[in-house]
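step=encode ok
step=design start
structure_in=
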């Protein structure tokens, strides 16, 4: 039986596409692709045919390849291996989740898959659930630059004017500035281009505080 979560995730990464871009190529929605990759839904017959046509390979070719599931091209393995040296004794055990683009379309957390490990700063030693994300575009410049790793503490309550990672119910994440929240909306700010982004509270699964960042080499 085909492992569609693995097949879809691997093909999307080979094509270097976000879930939204991959969905557009198949004539479906980002939410549907997210459910496929999370294993919550399998493609129907027509969708499966479209996926294999897009790949130029058969389902059997994927199942028989025996390849290890790879993180997104050019991201975790390469970047984590070439981090700038941290302070002495800094243990490299902070899990990097998904790949953060800090853009309007957000990033995809790949169902919580760990794509690598970053150095754990002193303020996150002993913090359960702490994690990191890699930034890839300039929408939050100059605060966060492309190729930086942001460090996140999920245990500290966030307040207006905090820089946060917002995780949505469809497995996306956004690196933004929290401006305010009401009973009806969570309002975020990005810098490039300047704009406000709003989510309904029911669309947000979690909002976590960014407590640090450090640069990595390409």
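sequence_out=
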């Amino acid at each position: 039986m085909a492992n569609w979560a693995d097949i879809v995730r691997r093909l999307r990464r080979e094509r270097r596409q976000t879930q939204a871009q991959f969905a557009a190529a198949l004539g479906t929605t980002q939410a549907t692709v997210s459910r496929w990759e999370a294993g919550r839904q399998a493609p129907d017959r027509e969708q499966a045919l479209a996926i294999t046509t897009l790949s130029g390979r058969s389902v059997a070719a994927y199942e028989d390849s025996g390849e290890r599931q790879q993180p997104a091209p050019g991201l975790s393995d390469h970047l984590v291996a070439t981090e700038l040296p941290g302070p002495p004794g800094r243990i490299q055990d902070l899990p990097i989740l998904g790949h953060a683009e800090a853009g309007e379309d957000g990033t995809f957390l790949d169902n919580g898959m760990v794509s690598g490990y970053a150095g754990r700063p002193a303020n996150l030693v002993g913090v359960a659930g702490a994690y990191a994300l890699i930034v890839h575009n300039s929408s939050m410049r100059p605060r966060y630059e492309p190729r930086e790793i942001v460090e996140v503490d999920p245990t500290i309550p966030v307040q207006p004017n905090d820089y946060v990672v917002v995780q949505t119910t469809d497995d996306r994440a956004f690196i933004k500035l929290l401006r305010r929240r009401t009973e009806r909306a969570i309002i975020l700010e990005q810098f490039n281009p300047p704009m406000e982004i709003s989510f309904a509270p029911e669309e947000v699964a979690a909002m976590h505080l960014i407590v640090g960042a450090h640069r990595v080499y390409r």
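step=design ok
step=annotate ok -> The first strand starts at residue 94 and ends at 97.
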